């Protein structure tokens, strides 16, 4: 079957104010000469996304909507770091901006007036103006929309990563709150946090049958820089690590169980042994990655320095 050209995509309207081209053109795809136009089903889903969300937004605010990222083919998605199950791959997710309109106003209007699955802000963490220039990510589901507005704490608490863990637990931070630091990853980062919850936290919770206290999960680069002693290459910034403990359980015992029973990238017994009268002395750090093979690396970090293995002293 003949492939559609970008010139033809410019002429194909998905709704009165949106063409297929707006969702397909991406400079990275253009540079690599990758074909980034969806098949017939993908076009149908993009029409649905426009009809249900983008066109009503355009009509209400009366200003052009700039598509930051629309459809991505698998190669482009991998290059951009998208999740394997990203809604951008199907045509049911889009990132956009409206010049001159507060993103919060747009999110508020969508949340109050439209059907959607996920609604959130996304930032370029490495841009010095990132918090002044966010874009909006919204997705639509053909299997029932959850209406999860991730700009609100209540919906962060509703968003389940696994049976016993919510997105809120993996992104909350007293430091971020105190310093007004935005601390929510993008769609791909949320999927990585899901993998941490499913492969690390949930098995621990199932085995010990007791609540887990998450001390630190995701840290945006700005938050990580504000945390004293945090590594500049911390896996917390990549949504691959979590610090946790179980109240009343010896953290050395907890770390040993993880080492003997789970697959992980790095396991660190941190600051255990400084107060032998406290079974919750210190905490356990565990990371999990889907980017490569997990290293199964064990370390102990305390006032004696960093040592290989899990050491009880």
Q: What would you note in describing this structure?
A:
The chain is an alpha+beta fold and 313 residues long. Helix content is 36%, strand content 18%. The protein has helices at 6-11, 20-24, 27-32, 40-61, 74-80, 103-113, 153-158, 167-171, 174-179, 187-208, 221-226, 251-261; strands at 13-15, 18-19, 66-69, 93-97, 118-122, 135-139, 148-149, 213-216, 241-245, 266-270, 283-287, 297-302, 305-308. The termini are far apart. Mean pLDDT is 93; it is low at 126-131.
Mean pLDDT, as a whole number?
93
Count of strand segments: 13
Low-confidence stretches: 126-131
* Biggest sheet record: 6 strands, mixed
Helix content: 25-40%
The sequence of SSEs as H and E is HEEHHHEHEHEEEHHHHEHEHEEEE
Question: Can you tell me the number of structural domains?
Answer: 2
Structural class per helix/strand content?
A: alpha+beta
Oligomer: single chain
Q: How do the strands line up in the largest sheet?
A: 8-9-11-10-12-13
CATH class of the largest domain, anyone?
Answer: Alpha Beta
Shape descriptor reads elongated
Helical segment count: 12
Report the end-to-end length measured between terminal Cα atoms. Answer: 68 Å
Portion in beta strands: 15-25%
């Amino acid at each position: 079957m003949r492939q559609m050209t970008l010139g033809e995509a410019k002429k194909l309207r998905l709704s009165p104010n949106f063409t297929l081209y707006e969702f397909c053109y991406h400079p990275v795809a253009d540079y690599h000469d990758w074909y980034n136009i969806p098949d017939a089903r993908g076009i149908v889903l993009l029409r649905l996304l426009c009809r249900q969300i983008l066109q009503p937004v355009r009509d209400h605010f009366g200003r052009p909507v700039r598509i930051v990222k629309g459809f991505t083919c698998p190669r482009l998605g991998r290059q951009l770091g998208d999740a394997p199950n990203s809604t951008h791959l199907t045509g049911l997710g889009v990132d956009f901006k409206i010049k001159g309109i507060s993103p919060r106003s747009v999110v508020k209007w969508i949340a109050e007036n439209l059907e959607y699955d996920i609604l959130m802000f996304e930032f370029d963490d490495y841009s010095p103006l990132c918090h002044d220039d966010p874009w909006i990510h919204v997705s639509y589901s053909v299997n029932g929309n959850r209406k999860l507005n991730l700009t609100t704490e209540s919906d962060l608490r509703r968003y389940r990563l696994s049976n016993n863990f919510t997105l809120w637990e993996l992104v909350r931070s007293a430091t971020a709150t105190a310093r007004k630091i935005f601390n929510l990853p993008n769609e791909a980062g949320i999927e990585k946090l899901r993998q941490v919850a499913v492969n690390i936290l949930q098995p621990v919770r199932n085995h010990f049958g007791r609540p887990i206290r998450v001390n630190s999960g995701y840290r945006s680069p700005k938050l990580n820089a504000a945390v004293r002693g945090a590594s500049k290459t911390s896996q917390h910034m990549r949504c691959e690590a979590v610090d946790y403990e179980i109240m009343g359980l010896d953290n050395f015992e907890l770390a040993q169980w993880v080492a003997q029973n789970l697959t992980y990238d790095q396991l660190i017994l941190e600051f255990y042994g400084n107060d032998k009268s406290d079974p919750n002395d210190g905490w356990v750090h565990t990371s999990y990655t889907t980017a490569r093979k997990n290293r199964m690396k064990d370390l102990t970090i305390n006032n004696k320095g960093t040592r290989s293995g899990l050491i009880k002293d």
